[in-house]
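Consider the tokenized backbone below.
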């Protein structure tokens, strides 16, 4: 059965709990009323497009911090893969493990690739109240993402 509820700007963000690259559980609810949250769903660690996208966020990380935004990359890779990807690129943010792609499905960040479900590049910005204030497929610019908070 397909999920017919399409997430859109203004909706409450679905709660989730995922482990980060160090095995620590990260839950959306832990940030509510404290910080804005940026979720970057991406297909693969160390792939050219994903590396470019996450490096752009890394390069502008101070701008995200200045707006009180916690940044998380999300895909299905394991702790070891995430740790290597972070170390190679000096990411100052956590990468979360969505092993069964359930959170990616909930956030409609899945597409079919030769009949197999893969994570589709999707960016979601959630405000402190838990509302989705930015949601876009692909690779929006950091300026475009940050402008959602204005």
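A designed sequence for it:
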């Amino acid at each position: 059965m397909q999920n017919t509820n399409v997430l859109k700007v203004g909706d409450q963000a679905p709660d989730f709990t995922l482990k980060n690259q160090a095995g620590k559980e990260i839950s959306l609810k832990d940030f509510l009323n404290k910080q804005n949250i940026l979720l970057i769903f991406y297909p693969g660690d160390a792939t050219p497009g994903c590396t470019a996208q996450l490096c752009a966020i890394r390069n502008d990380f101070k701008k995200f911090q200045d707006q009180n935004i916690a940044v998380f990359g999300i895909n299905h890779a394991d702790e070891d893969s995430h740790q290597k990807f972070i170390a190679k690129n000096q990411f100052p943010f956590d990468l979360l493990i969505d092993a069964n792609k359930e959170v990616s499905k909930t956030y409609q960040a899945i597409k079919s690739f030769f009949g197999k479900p893969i994570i589709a590049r999707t960016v979601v910005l959630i405000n402190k109240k838990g509302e989705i204030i930015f949601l876009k497929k692909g690779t929006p610019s950091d300026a475009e993402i940050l402008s959602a908070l204005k």
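The longest strand covers residues 69-75.
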